[in-house]
Amino acid sequence: MVNQQSIKHVVVVGGGLAGLSAAMKLADCGLHVSIVSVTKVKRSHSVCAQGGINAAINLKGENDSPLIHAYDTIKGGDFLANQPPIVEMCFAAPKIIQMLERFGCTFNRTPEGNLDFRRFGGTLYNRTAFCGASTGQQLLYSLDEQVRRFEVKGLVKKYENHEFMRLVLDNQGKACGIVYMDLFNLKLDVLKADAVVIATGGLGLLFKKSTNSTFCTGAANGRLYRQGMAYANGEFIQIHPTAIPGMDKLRLISESVRAEGGRVWVYGDSSKKILAPNGEMIPCGVTGEPWYFLEEMYPAFGNLVPRDIGAREILRICELGLGVDGEMQVYLDVTHLPEKTLAKLESVLEIYRKFTGSDPKKVPMKIFPAVHYTMGGAWVDWPAADDPDRFERFRHMTNLPGCFAAGECEYQYHGANRLGANALLSCIFAGLVCGVEIPRYLETLGSRNLSEDLYLEAIAKEEALKVDLLSRNGGENVHKLHDELADILINNVTVKRDNENLKKVLKQIDEIEDRYNKITLDDKSQFANQTYAFANQFGYMLDLAKVITKGALDRNEFRGAHFKPEFPDRNDEEWLKTTIAIYDPKTKNPIISYEKIDVRHLDPKGILRDYTKAKKIVPHLENIPKNLESQLPL
Q1: Residues 219-239: pLDDT tens digits?
Q2: Taking Cα atoms as reference points, which of 173, 197, 142, 276 lies closest to residue 31?
Q3: In this model, does residue 422 exceed pLDDT 50?
Q4: Distance between CA atoms of residues 28 and 10, nearest Å
Q5: Can you tell me the mean pLDDT for 161-180?
Q6: Nearest Cα residue to 23 out of 37, 33, 14, 13
Q7: Of 272, 377, 481, 572, which has fewest CB within 10 angstroms of its CB?
Q8: Would you please indicate which residues are annotated as catalytic (active-site) residues?
């Protein structure tokens, strides 16, 4: 426990589920916490999560367990995630649900009053707790209520509509605060801190047409990457199978729609054939009749195959010319579902109704895959429960001492593909872990006499960049550059990739970077200047675009969301390893290295991600620590 005579201060950057759970836990330990968020905390992107949160509580009598949950998660991520943190997350999941219940979270219940669970993609078990189809919103509000208790006590202060700009490091390279910007007047200031938690979410806006909120730029991670933070598995970007096609951005149609019985289909054409997962060429249904292609090709999982598989199959169908109205879209049909089931999905169906003008209760929805989630992110440490150096290292700390990361902005739990409803779990779990690890870290610091010059120099660097951006006077428009970058990435670095085009993409990013130096901002005012804020972010977005593309170019295999037709197989001998990118300030390019995956619990040898057939099994996970329960952050 922290010495109460010298209360420490922690800055949490991000007000979503990861940030709020970290802030709650830290304040509960008696620490002073500042939450910095680019938007109102209750509008953080976690609020957009619809489907549910996973926990193997086994209220459906299926003999589910945290071990089976861990097995599904490890396998679903195509074995690219280190296994100890996954196992602990899955063991903590039931306790997290119980904690949220105590907070008053409005989970759906059965007629008997028990928690209700639905089945989600990549599993045969009903282990997804849910709040209708607005689960993220309800979890976020529940955690925010708890954080407000600590606000009243003076332990938490929120800086909403402020943006993280830079980590302040002391002469030993340890985090000692941040530079942040008021988004209303562009004023730069510092928050001094003994530790910093980064919980800033994903980078979907890099691709523009994504399901992410428009403030999910990844710029915070880009800024830290440029300051020396290691970025892991950048090439793994999740494409969600079902989103509403649109010109501006894409809007998610939750996996919960398929979990409740929604079916994906197109009209068949028996004159065409497609290669099925079993290696056979099969006809594309019966001409003129609905063809439920996922159900035919993956009979065991049907419409609830993992997201990477669903997205690839929908793309293949559309490339064969079978898309609805001849366009890149397929049907997602709920017209056959009873009204009682549709009521659970109303918040999602209302989104479709609002943005298309069509009633999904009467006509099938038209959907297409969209960039949705970032599996890669900040590299963070994880000493396992029974590692000899467990208490000499700190879980979820980046390679920058004193800087921790939690949630979608880090790489820890999902490997090459995230299973649906594991995101909310991993965000809350990671935040809680930070909440128990940081007090331990603070005990190692001792007294720190930090010079004011550290903070003045950090602000001066950001002031100089602001002056530079506002004074640029070229012929380029940063928003048009973003459109070009997004088109390049969508076309070449999403569902399907090949080395020839990836090499071209790297050159194109360099060209856009050169043109970025010749932009002119059409708004040079100091008040609520969104153009300036985005122009500042865009340089760091380009850095991450290079990390994603370079990682994809170098990884010559097919694993999870990373699909290269020229390398059609998973290659564990060469590629069962984490990609690590470090920024090279001389070349402005990533230096790539690799780190071995920790597979101490489940050997991937001989285990394929075959979702065409499946049966419920009780997996044998080895080397489960005897002291695991005592290590959980609840």
Answers
A1: 999 999 999 999 999 999 999
A2: 197
A3: yes
A4: 13
A5: 98
A6: 33
A7: 272
A8: 307
Which tokens sit at 350? 């209302």
What the block records as the tokens of 561 is: 């969301």
- C-alpha–C-alpha distance, residues 557 and 483, integer Å: 29
Sequence-separated (6 or more) residues with CB below 8 Å from residue 106: 131, 138
| pLDDT tens readout for residues 429-479 | 999 999 999 999 999 998 888 999 999 999 999 999 999 999 999 999 999
* Confidence tier at 360 by pLDDT (50, 70, 90): very high
Measured at the alpha carbon of residue 417, what is the angle toward residues 432 and 425, in degrees to the nearest 5? Answer: 25
Phi, psi angle pair for 633, to nearest 5°: -85, 25
Give me the torsion for CA of 496, 500, 505, 510, rounded to 10°: 160
How many residues in the chain?
Answer: 634
Centre a 10 Å sphere on the Cβ of residue 5 and count the other Cβ atoms it contains: 5
pLDDT of residue 1: 36
Who contacts 475 (Cβ-Cβ below 8 Å, separation ≥6)?
518, 520
pTM of the model: 0.96
Q: Which pLDDT band, with edges at 50, 70 and 90, does 4 fall under?
A: very low
Q: In a 3-state reduction of DSSP, which class is residue 287?
A: strand
d(CA 233, CA 575): 12
Residue 130 CA neighbour count, 13 Å, CB half: 27
Residue pair 176/458 in contact by the 8 Å Cβ criterion: no
Q: How distant, in Å, are the alpha carbons of 57, 387, 405 from that of 538?
A: 43, 41, 21
Conformational region of residue 151, where left means phi above 0, alpha means psi within -120 to 50, and beta covers everything else: alpha
Beta bridge mates, 528: none
**Backbone torsions φ then ψ of 162, nearest 5 degrees:** -130, 145
Phi-psi region of 203 (alpha: psi -120 to 50; beta: other; left: phi over 0): alpha
